[in-house]
Specification:
single chain, about 260 residues, alpha/beta, Aminopeptidase, six-stranded mixed sheet, two-stranded parallel ribbon
Length: about 260
Amino acid sequence: MQHVRDQMAFGPRPTGSEASFQTGEYILQTLSGYGWATESQPFDYLDVTGRNLVGKAGQADGPIFLIGAHYDTRIFADEDPDAPEEPVPGANDGASGVAVLLELARVLDLSAVQGEVWLVFFDAEDNGRIGEWDWIVGSTIFAEQMETPPEYVIIADMIGDADQNIYYERTSDVLLREHLWEIAASLGYEEYFIPQPKYAILDDHTPFLNMGIPAVDIIDFDYPYWHTLEDTTDKVSAASLQRVGRVLEVFLEAGGTYPAD
């Protein structure tokens, strides 16, 4: 939870803002402190500059296992009935996925991983339908510019809800999502990782799916505070963050591979 609180202390973190820059520096410094190599990928979109952030660790000559989350927050809380022009705080939709990845960077036993782990923090995911903004800008640019494709992509988005219900996201790679949900079940998380399809979500996994790369979106879209001013720290549960992080940790420490058929 501390990583959520630390991000929230910067205030709303829309792409191009000072708070976004401060959050990015926090992410990079945290990764470096845990011994991860870091990279920054700036990009221009409309009239703002965003940047994707990457932490790398593990077998540098091995296959790439990409785990991602977006760190930006929406410019306007356009689902809020009272203040639709105020910025979204983004405790769950923004800070939660980042918190899981940063904690994963701390605890992961890299000696057990049969490849190189990339923790990628995408910018400019969350402003679609506002003016000329599109969704998933940062991940689209990242996917277009990457030189070596990853073996797969796993996205953690909106996973901190205290009332956690993570269903299969319909567009996600079937084999990889089934494997992850089986790990969740083995950990006793059947109540929270529900192996039934529910939503089809345009998210940061989508650009990679479009390139033929297996990708899964771990997302709890049953969140009544989405894009409102009520997306605040008190809505986020440390236990929910821990469950998602533990599934990713167990998956990667089992080698980071999964049955292809």
